[in-house]
């Protein structure tokens, strides 16, 4: 995602520690203390400007959410939305998805969302894809037994890669949508990219996969 650099972004983030903790690794195993209620905890890895995660938090007040974004210039857009909404079930983490096991304890997260991730189309960059074996191991390390990943993309190549990577990792594919918007799926909340791509008539792919019990 190409963003206009916002040199003031880090100062704005530091000014709102109630929403964006300054040292997230120190909250490992204690993230529930950041929320008004102790509830199932879902994360989105790579939240972009945050439309999906903010709308999910509004639609599901019985779930706690953490938005994870590595780019400060994108994260401030999420922060602006949270400042306006002040949702008690949403926190924001400035950090790298490659280091999830440094931020979260085993089983601390109930569900992982991956939405419109960078496809990294070149084979030499495959390990950077958020559904590569390295990242799958990160998710497995923070989810409970049988924990799930929900994944959406408009990129067919990335979707096919993800189906294969998850199957080879030993995950169970619970459901697969080859054209989400033409299906009877209910409760879909769109990201900014999803709105743009679907308006162009592009197909949206979605899957729900779980780690095998006793793998």
UniProtKB/TrEMBL annotation:
GO cellular component terms, semicolon-separated: tRNA methyltransferase complex
Family designation: Belongs to the class I-like SAM-binding methyltransferase superfamily. TrmB family.
Annotated protein name in UniProt: tRNA (guanine-N(7)-)-methyltransferase
Pathway(s) annotated for this protein in UniProt: tRNA modification; N(7)-methylguanine-tRNA biosynthesis
Function: Catalyzes the formation of N(7)-methylguanine at position 46 (m7G46) in tRNA.
Binding-site residues for substrate, renumbered to this chain: 122, 154, 191-194
The keyword tRNA processing is annotated on this UniProt entry: yes
Top enzyme category: transferase
Alphabetical UniProt keywords: Methyltransferase, S-adenosyl-L-methionine, Transferase, tRNA processing
A Pfam family matched in the record: Methyltransf_4
Amino-acid positions noted as binding S-adenosyl-L-methionine in the UniProt annotation, renumbered to this chain: 44, 69, 96, 118
Enzyme Commission (EC) number: 2.1.1.33
Reaction it catalyzes: guanosine(46) in tRNA + S-adenosyl-L-methionine = N(7)-methylguanosine(46) in tRNA + S-adenosyl-L-homocysteine
PANTHER family: 3-DEOXY-D-MANNO-OCTULOSONIC-ACID TRANSFERASE/TRNA GUANINE-N 7 - -METHYLTRANSFERASE, PENTACOTRIPEPTIDE-REPEAT REGION OF PRORP DOMAIN-CONTAINING PROTEIN
GO molecular function, one term: tRNA (guanine(46)-N7)-methyltransferase activity
Alphabetized HAMAP family for the sequence: tRNA_methyltr_TrmB (MF_01057)
Gene name of the encoded protein: trmB
């Amino acid at each position: 995602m190409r963003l206009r650099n916002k040199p003031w972004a880090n100062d704005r983030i530091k000014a709102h520690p109630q929403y964006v903790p300054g040292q997230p690794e120190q909250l490992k195993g204690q993230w529930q203390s950041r929320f008004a209620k102790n509830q199932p905890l879902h994360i989105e890895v790579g939240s972009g400007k945050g439309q999906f995660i903010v709308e999910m938090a509004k639609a599901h007040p019985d779930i706690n959410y953490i938005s994870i974004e590595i780019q400060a210039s994108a994260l401030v857009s999420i922060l602006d939305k949270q400042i306006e909404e002040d949702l008690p079930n949403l926190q924001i983490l400035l950090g790298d998805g490659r280091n999830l096991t440094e931020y979260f304890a085993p089983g601390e997260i109930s569900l992982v969302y991956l939405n419109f991730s960078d496809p990294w189309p070149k084979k030499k960059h495959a390990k950077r894809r958020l559904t590569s074996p390295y990242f799958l191991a990160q998710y497995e390390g923070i989810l409970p037994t049988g924990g799930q990943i929900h994944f959406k993309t408009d990129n067919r190549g990335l979707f096919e890669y993800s189906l294969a990577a998850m199957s080879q990792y030993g995950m169970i594919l619970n459901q697969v949508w080859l054209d989400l918007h033409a299906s009877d799926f209910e409760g879909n909340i769109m990201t900014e990219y999803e709105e743009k791509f679907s308006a162009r008539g592009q197909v949206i792919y979605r899957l729900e996969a779980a780690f095998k019990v006793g793998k």
